[in-house]
Specification:
Length: 355
Amino acid sequence: MSLTFLWYLPNTVDPGHRGDDAVAGYGTLEHSVDLARTAEQHGWSGALIGTGWGRPDTFTVATAIAARTTTFRPLAAIRPGYWQPAHFASAAATLDHLSGGRLLINIVSGQDNLAAYGDAEGDQAQRYARTKEFMRLTRRLWTEEHVTFEGEHFRVRDSTVTPRPQATGPRLYFGGASAAAERVAATEADVQLFWGEPLDGIAERLDRLRRLSGELGRDLPPLEFGLRITTLVRDTTEEAWRDAEAKVAAMAQQSEVPGRRDLLRGPAVGQQRLLDLAARGDVLDSCLYTAPGRYGGGGAGTTWLVGSPEDVTAALRRYAELGISHFVLSDTPYKRETARVGDALIGRLREPALL
């Protein structure tokens, strides 16, 4: 099984994202390109570039970085509603064409500040129905000419995207743990991303998604799976846990503001699953640390894989044995950890004897 290793780029002009070094020029093109080139130099295929209103436009950032790198693959996060399908299909096809097929896309359906950019949406069922339609129409625009489509949420007439993307277009990564999200992933996504759950939870979801793909008549190549998680790696197990516990202690002090952790508790099923893991213990499986979620860690920062290179490699290998083939990892400070984690893990994980 071929494995893909991606890192994470902080798409913000506000310094210090998730404890990152607040260096001069944070969030400038030079800063972002430096991080991307560091990823290239240390074995990463590319990196996820996040999205959200009030942050730099993700697609513009991805385009600028692609122009100043050679192998780096931007995994650009985008939202249906912020983009119309034909507009997005054209922009993505253009960047994919200009970059020699390097573009990857992460479709995000989670709620954002919709009113700020003129969007509106209904309940969860409507939101994921719109996402499904968006993904299906985008693929048609990448692979067909003179597309006419009249859907519940989107429509085009006699639409042809120029230039054409490489092959059938950028691969579509997707997340979401609700039943509605999984039905979209089963039929429309190329790669389903999971947060850092224990092995038993991931295995259960893999089985369910594979079964859904058959039941819903998936007409794309088999769905692939990815893991988005923080990895705190040090030379020794003892050093890693000492640093991890110190980080969490600092987070605990910062979380004393009333209601800070409650801000994470919302309708997102995947986030809630992560927060609930802490009730099972601080450490699950071999080295999955759940304590960060108690003190404000959200998303990929809710659980961490902690340990020596051998420890974390072994943990990631177990996910690969379940069927995970895409890894989107991160830790801060981003630049230092891009090099450290890439050098420590990627070579080990690419050794055939380990898979």
